[in-house]
Amino acid sequence: MNLLTVHELKKSYQAKKTILDNISFKLNKGECLGLVGESGCGKSTLARCLLRIEPIDSGSIYFKDKAIEQLNDRQLYPYRRKIQIVLQNPSASLNPKLKIKDSLIDPYAQFKNDLNLIHFSYTSKDTFIKQLLEVVELPSSLADRYPHELSGGQRQRITIARAISIEPEFIVLDEPTASLDVISQGAILTLLTNLRKALNLSYLFISHDLAAVKEMSQRVMVMKDGKLVDQFDNEQLFNEERHSYTKELISIF
């Protein structure tokens, strides 16, 4: 089942510089689709367009067969509950003045009247927070701490817990391990894979790290200068017909 369908998406900025040039792809339910490319190629801009943080110039974005590219804020409300994002820098994602438990409860508080939770249950704030911390393999004692009291890996686990707290269907992972040490990177990738399977999530995994993309994804897209130059199943990475830029990335893999 197609969860997300993007067709001929275009985006330009000032001076008519094209950032996204005829981007088309599909994301299946329960799939991790990797997006790899060098810095500045348009990966994060694509993420913001999919999240409807930025408008597109032309093209279409379908979420479960519903066109969302022209919806206003009120019409987007149900969509925003079903899609979340995990960013590169967890420190920038967490309010330094809020305790962890207050950051974690915020999405639930915003959407609670429209939620029908399946994997989590809300009987009280404390039990709900405990569930979220357990699922990202953190002790419940962290709930009363502030972000600066946690390690980088722990903070990223908190942002993941917050993203899954309202049981979305689709999560954009925008360089989620780039700010972490090697050991923490591997642990976070394993956690994300386990959560995808347990919660039936779909990911767009954005990275410049081809090794991480290969580990996480069932299919891979390669972006260069605002264009998707290659798309293939994971096991086809080393096939001879790969695009020359893909082969260049493989050479430094």
Account of the protein in words:
By secondary structure, the chain is of the alpha/beta class. It has a single domain (2-251), classed as P-loop containing nucleotide triphosphate hydrolases (Rossmann fold). It is built from nine helices and ten strands. It has a six-stranded mixed sheet, with helices on both faces. It has a four-stranded antiparallel sheet with strand order 2-1-4-5, covered by helices on one side. Helix 4 runs parallel beside helix 6 (152-164). The chain is globular.
Outline the secondary-structure elements:
Blueprint: E1 2-12, E2 18-28, E3 32-36, H1 43-50, E4 58-63, E5 66-67, H2 73-82, E6 83-86, H3 90-93, H4 100-111, H5 125-135, H6 152-164, E7 170-174, H7 182-199, E8 202-207, H8 210-216, E9 219-224, E10 227-233, H9 244-251
Parallel strand pairs: 3-8, 3-9, 6-7, 7-8
Antiparallel strand pairs: 1-2, 1-4, 4-5, 9-10
Helix pairs in contact: 4-6, 6-7
GO molecular function: ATP binding; ATP hydrolysis activity
Protein name: Dipeptide/oligopeptide/nickel ABC transporter ATP-binding protein
GO biological process, one term: transmembrane transport
